[in-house]
Amino acid sequence: MSNCIFCEIIEGSIPSEIVYEDEAVFAFRDINGQAPLHVLIIPKQHIASINDLETNNAHLIGQLYLAAKEIAQTEGYTDQGYRVVMNCGEAAGQTVFHLHLHLLAGRPLTWPPG
Ligand code: 5GP
Ligand code: ZN
After folding, report:
1. How many domains does the chain divide into?
2. Is the CB of 87 under 6 A from ligand 1?
3. DSSP character string of 26-63
4. Is residue 112 one of the residues assigned to a domain?
5. Domain of residue 52, CATH code
6. In this predicted model, what pLDDT tens digit does every residue of 49-99 receive, in sequence order?
7. pTM of the full predicted structure?
8. Ligand nearest to the CA of 52
9. Domain of 38?
10. Whole-angstrom Cα distance, residue 18 to residue 63?
11. Which single residue of 4, 7, 29, 36 has CA 20 to 30 Å from 44?
12. Residues 35, 107: contact at Cβ < 8 Å?
């Protein structure tokens, strides 16, 4: 999709530090990391937010979580623990409207989040 920063990252026209890629999923380090590990895991298909999900996207959402598990393992955070979170809409802090999971690890993560 044009004018989508994450679609441009998938295409490579905006550089990123890629940590994972398969046929449906792309993951790269957040440019403004909030923890020692902060990776964004996104579908290659442009979907703006959770509000735009459809029934046939259910498998894709599972693929995002499986990628999170694999990246956490590769980066060495399986036992220590990590957080996987998806913001939906402006009040939740979503600033980029291309669906993305945040994978955070490497420091104590408080709950509830701010
Ligand atoms: P949101 O606030 O929408 O949940 O998360 C968007 C995230 O994308 C933010 O954590 C922000 O730092 C990250 N981000 C925005 N633009 C870029 C970029 O050009 N490159 C990378 N790697 N991350 C970005
Ligand atoms: Zn996009």
Report:
1. 1
2. yes
3. EEEE-TT-SSSEEEEEEESS----GGG--GGGHHHHHH
4. no
5. 3.30.428.10
6. 999 999 999 999 999 999 999 999 999 999 999 999 999 999 999 999 999
7. 0.98
8. 2
9. 5-105
10. 17
11. 36
12. yes
